Automatic annotation (TrEMBL), chain A:
UniProt keyword Transport, yes or no: no
Domain of life: Bacteria
Signal sequence, renumbered to the chain: none
Major localization listed first in the record, in broad terms: membrane
Family the UniProt entry places it in: Belongs to the CPA3 antiporters (TC 2.A.63) subunit B family.
Record key words, sorted: Cell membrane, Membrane, Transmembrane, Transmembrane helix
Membrane topology value: Multi-pass membrane protein
Pfam families: MnhB
Cell compartments where the protein resides: Cell membrane
Protein name per UniProt: MnhB domain-containing protein
Keyword Glycoprotein applies: no
Length: 155, 762
């Protein structure tokens, strides 16, 4: 993404190695943020940005083409974004089906809820996952759009 | 190249493509017919309604009722709709064939027509001011696409925009009026408003605003100029929208809220004056138009003037008469519009001066349109006779001025519609008849038959009109038309009108002078000039502001910062702030925060002074990270986390963007006077924005407002299963906002994709 034409075309090898190794752990961190999101600091947005940051480091390290070759899953970004949006919207508007106002979550405030370790099982979680997927998808799409610009100009 | 030209020539020579039967049109026609019978059965069954809560907190209801008034307009919209749609199946096919457009273009026509018909029925039956507004605008939007159907024709496009602007902007007046009434009386429901509203200043203003919207829709002077322009639409659109539907919507609204308007003497007088003006202006201008549809358009302005005048009189007689008039006029006028379209399609000419003597060649059309024209001119044995009888009776009841006016109005009508028909069908033969179509004549004949039946058996029409008049007036209304062979004032007025009309018809030179003079005066001083001047002025102002804003990057930023700063200053000046701004105490963790804030100050100065772009970008992220640390220290780790994330992303974006910028600044303005001036302006803009931000933050920290919603958020977060307030706010308390925001996010990225690589998202 950032390649100055004059000096040092490629970033140094440390950056490249880190970039290669970062995406997997970043997804772990993101998952952790979502899991403990409600009990402690963190939510789907922050988780999404973390994954996107790892991806963007890859873009910086090996360039747009390289990044998309190393992480072929990136090409699903539009689908991921749309899935996330639909998931969040569905979780928000589903209550209308049984006659409640939108974004009324289940279990309702004050009611007991199932916990699975730190993970609290309730419908907010679906919305959070939706936001996570959307943020990842959108940011990766943006990286793709802007990262490729220069290459396209050349051809 | 030569080959291309050869192919073009062959295309030119080839006969226009024959299109398949217009089944979307027939589906629309069938739907309208079904709607007609549904309306009829519903009304005969007593005309019930229903009401569903829409936004209960605003007392908004989706409430509809098929009362007499609703039935008239519903029956007109669906009945005339069905006939015009049938006519349109042939007309549009020919139209598309002539213009060498494909059958697929029908899909840009019929859905709008059908939606328009539905909106009209909705408007006719709506019992809630906001609902009325929604349908009002829906009809305007449909009319935009219908008038602009020939989109390659720039005249059609400007006409469509004009019709849209005039009717929609004035519809906003109606919304404002509705909100005023809601503020004063607490409801949008028309029946309840009618009971609650008393005469007051608010009522006058609100009634006047609603009346303006209705009058603009009915093309009344001085907002009439859109209608003659709208004749750029295909003829079925004119025959439907500009005779029985779109323009009728305005009168419908007046009939619906008449008892509100009645509370204000001023508004009623205004209706009288505007109605009278429209009758005269429309009538005189219609006398000498050359294009067929122009004659009819000005006639429509004049005819709706009659109805506005009747509503302005406000007696029971006149309310019933107005309802009757709507029916009689709509039937006659749509028949005449369809006649004009059939003639134009048959001969390829649309000017009276190029046409003549068609009577022998198109006898059925001639007879049918003669009946329609007679009805419009209120000759006996047609339903139109009674519309004028009732009109004369109401005018006589009102006083001598309206009596004279009524006679003049009827005389003008007879003169222009007589000229229209006589020129078209009698006299020397002009124009070639090349195309004959049963489908395009049958609807006219059918409407003519309705006209004659209405002239003999008035009972059903009178009953409908009485029922509508009752809704308008709120008390039983007598509508009892009939032939009385005696010297009643109505009959004397009718005879006077025919005589005068006949004289006008026989003195074309006089009418020419009259009509031309008025037309020239209208061109010079008319409201259309005002409209155009306003449009150009707006355009220039917009271009000026835009130019100021986007001249360079600094202006773009200043265009955001300076108004924001000034607005904050205004709010600051308007809010009582005595003692609100306090200096806090420094204690505990504050001692860690202070050096961080100091660092931020230093870095900010660096940003202001530095000349290296990379240094500026990095310094900006130092500010961001330091602020994130401050958040963490004042006990908002969730905000801090988001801040770190966003800051990292921003730093990356900055670096990426900087890599694309040219290395050097443009040479030409280095050290120039302009540049120095700009620098000074930057300082001023920056200072205003900085001061505003400072005041805002200080004000927030001093908590001038005692109660804040954030306390509630913090209190309720545990109950909503949230340990983290930010998460609880995002996913629960303001969940709907989040949903909208994330939708915007995806839309934005699609926008980026569109701009960057023509919509390819990957």
């Amino acid at each position: 993404m950032v390649r100055r034409s004059g000096r040092g075309a490629a970033p140094d090898s440390v950056v490249r190695v880190v970039a290669r190794m970062l995406p997997a752990p970043s997804v772990m961190v993101a998952a952790a943020l979502i899991v403990k999101g409600y009990a402690e600091v963190g939510d789907g947005f922050a988780a999404g940005v973390i994954v996107a940051l790892a991806v963007s480091l890859t873009y910086v390290a090996v360039g747009a083409d390289g990044a998309e070759a190393v992480l072929p899953v990136l090409r699903h970004a539009p689908k991921i974004a749309v899935t996330g949006l639909l998931l969040a919207l569905a979780s928000g508007f589903f209550p209308l089906v049984y006659g409640e106002e939108p974004v009324s979550h289940q279990p309702a405030p004050g009611e007991p809820l199932t916990k699975f370790g730190k993970l609290e099982l309730f419908t907010q979680l679906l919305m959070d996952i939706g936001v996570f997927l959307l943020v990842v998808g959108v940011l990766v799409m943006l990286l793709h759009q802007f990262g490729r610009l220069r290459g396209e100009e050349k051809s | 190249m030569a080959l291309d030209r050869g192919r073009a020539a062959r295309d030119e020579a080839a006969p226009a493509p024959r299109l398949t039967p217009d089944w979307p049109g027939w589906v629309a026609c069938a739907t309208a017919a079904v709607g007609f019978f549904a309306c009829l059965v519903g009304w005969l069954a007593g005309g019930d309604g229903f009401s569903v809560p829409w936004a209960p907190s605003l007392d908004l209801h989706l409430s509809f009722r098929l009362d007499g008034l609703g039935a008239i307009y519903g029956l007109l919209a669906t009945g005339i709709g069905a006939l015009v749609f049938a006519y349109g199946t042939r007309y549009m096919t020919l139209h598309l064939e002539h213009e060498r457009r494909g059958a697929v273009e029908r899909w840009r026509f019929w859905p709008w027509m059908l939606l328009f018909a539905m909106a009209m029925v909705g408007l006719a039956t709506a019992q809630d001011l906001v609902l009325v507004f929604v349908f009002f605008d829906l009809t305007a939007v449909c009319s935009y696409y219908l008038i602009g159907f020939d989109r390659s024709d720039s005249k059609a496009r400007t006409s469509a925009v004009m019709a849209l602007l005039v009717t929609v902007v004035s519809a906003v007046a109606m919304l404002i009026g509705a909100v005023l009434l809601y503020a004063a009386y607490g409801t949008f429901a028309i029946p309840e408003l009618i009971e609650r509203v008393g005469p007051s200043e608010t009522t006058t203003v609100a009634a006047a605003l609603i009346a303006v919207a209705a009058l603009a829709k009915s093309a009344q002077v001085p907002l009439h100029f859109w209608l003659p322009r709208a004749m750029a639409a295909p003829t079925p659109v004119s025959a439907y929208l500009h005779s029985a539907a779109m323009v009728a919507a305005g009168v419908l609204v007046i009939g619906r809220v008449h008892r509100l308007l009645e509370r204000s003497e001023l508004v009623m007088t205004g209706l009288l004056v505007i109605g009278a003006l429209s009758i005269v202006v429309g009538g005189v201008l219609a006398l000498r138009r050359d294009r067929l549809k122009q004659v009819l358009a000005y006639s429509t302005i004049s005819q709706y003037g009659y109805m506005v005048l009747l509503y302005g009189m406000g007696s029971s007689t006149s309310n019933g008469a107005a309802a009757f008039y709507v029916m009689a006029h709509a039937v006659a006028k749509s028949a005449l519009f369809m006649t004009a379209g059939a003639v134009t399609m048959a001969t390829g000419e649309d000017r009276l001066s190029k046409l003549g003597g068609l009577g022998r060649r198109m006898p059925v059309l001639a007879v049918a349109s003669a009946v329609a024209a007679a009805s419009l001119a209120a000759l006996p044995l047609t339903i139109g006779f009674f519309k004028d009888e009732l009109f004369f009776a109401a005018a006589w009841e009102e006083g001598s001025v309206t009596t004279v006016l009524a006679v003049v109005a009827a005389a003008l009508t007879l003169a222009y519609i007589g000229r229209f028909w006589v020129t078209l069908f009698l006299g020397a033969e002009k124009g070639q008849v090349t195309e004959r179509s049963v489908v395009m004549v049958a609807p006219v004949a059918f409407l003519a038959a309705v006209t004659v039946v209405g002239g003999l058996v008035t009972e059903p029409f009178a009953r409908l009109a009485a029922s509508a008049g009752e809704v308008t007036a709120g008390r039983p209304v007598e509508v009892d038309p009939g032939y009385h062979l005696e010297l009643s004032p109505e009959n004397l007025m009718a005879i006077a009108a025919w005589t005068l009309g006949g004289l006008l018809l026989a003195a074309p030179r006089l009418t020419t002078v009259l009509s031309r003079t008025l037309a020239r005066a209208g061109d010079l001083f008319g409201p259309r000039r005002g409209y155009e001047a306003m449009l150009h002025g707006l355009d220039r102002a917009s271009a000026g502001v835009h130019g100021l804003e986007v001249r360079d990057l600094r202006s773009s930023i200043a265009a955001v910062l300076v108004p924001a700063g000034l607005l904050v200053g205004l709010a600051f000046a308007a809010t009582p702030t005595d003692g609100a701004f306090a200096l806090g105490h420094v204690s505990g963790a504050d001692w860690v925060i202070l050096p961080l804030l100091g660092l931020i100050t230093v870095v900010t100065l660096v940003i202001a002074r530095s000349r290296s772009r990379l240094a500026i970008a990095l310094a900006l992220s130092v500010v961001g990270f330091a602020l994130a640390a401050v958040y963490a220290l004042i006990g908002a780790p969730d905000v801090a986390l988001v801040a770190v994330m966003v800051e990292t992303m921003l730093a990356l974006v900055f670096v990426a963007a900087l890599a694309r910028l040219p290395q050097e600044e443009p040479d030409e303005d280095r050290g120039s006077v302009v540049r120095k001036k700009r620098r000074r302006r930057d300082v001023v803009a920056g200072s205003i924005a900085g001061l505003a931000a400072f005041v805002t933050v200080w004000g927030f920290l001093s908590k001038p407002a005692a109660e804040s919603v954030s306390d509630d958020h913090i209190r309720l977060a545990p109950e909503a299963h949230g340990g983290d307030v930010v998460t609880a706010i995002v996913a629960d308390f303001r969940g709907l906002d989040t949903l909208v925001e994330i939708t915007v996010l995806l839309v934005a990225v699609i926008g980026v994709a569109t701009l960057m690589r023509r919509g390819k998202t990957w």
